[in-house]
């Protein structure tokens, strides 16, 4: 059985909720990623911040990314999957919530992220086509 841990990208890092968006953008550039999980003071997942969130939700609104925090951008219920979850559970979570990136948690700690690129490397063409259709479908 293929698990989330088998297909995830290891080495994912949190951005603390109190960090500013300019710092988040710097970390994204340093890590060459487009999204960061946001952690609360107890290193628990409280959201995901994307590069698009910074541009559309902050810069385009005329706000200063040096004053807006990652926590200010965290909205909704964060989605995640356990490291030992099978691929079907990963797909169900991503498809059911139309999300493109999914944090992987083990023992209440972030151990990786699953992105579109990870799925493309590990899914069959049929699985990938189903995922794309459901995640990118307009509601």
TrEMBL record:
Keywords: CBS domain
One Pfam family linked to the record: CBS
All copies of domain CBS, residue ranges: 8-65, 73-130
InterPro entries, per database record: CBS_dom, CBS_dom_sf, Diverse_CBS-Domain
Protein name in UniProt: CBS domain-containing protein
The species this protein was found in: Streptomyces silvensis
């Amino acid at each position: 059985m293929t698990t989330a841990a088998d297909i995830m990208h290891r080495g994912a890092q949190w951005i603390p909720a109190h960090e500013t968006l300019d710092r988040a953008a710097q970390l994204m550039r340093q890590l060459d990623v487009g999204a960061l999980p946001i952690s609360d003071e107890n290193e628990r997942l409280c959201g995901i911040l994307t590069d698009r969130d910074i541009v559309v939700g902050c810069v385009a609104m005329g706000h200063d990314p040096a004053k807006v925090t990652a926590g200010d951008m965290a909205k909704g219920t964060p989605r995640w999957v356990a490291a030992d979850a099978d691929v079907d559970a990963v797909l169900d979570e991503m498809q059911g919530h139309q999300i493109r990136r999914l944090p992987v948690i083990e023992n209440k700690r972030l151990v990786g992220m699953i992105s579109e690129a990870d799925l493309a490397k590990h899914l069959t063409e049929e699985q990938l086509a189903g995922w794309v259709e459901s995640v990118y479908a307009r509601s």
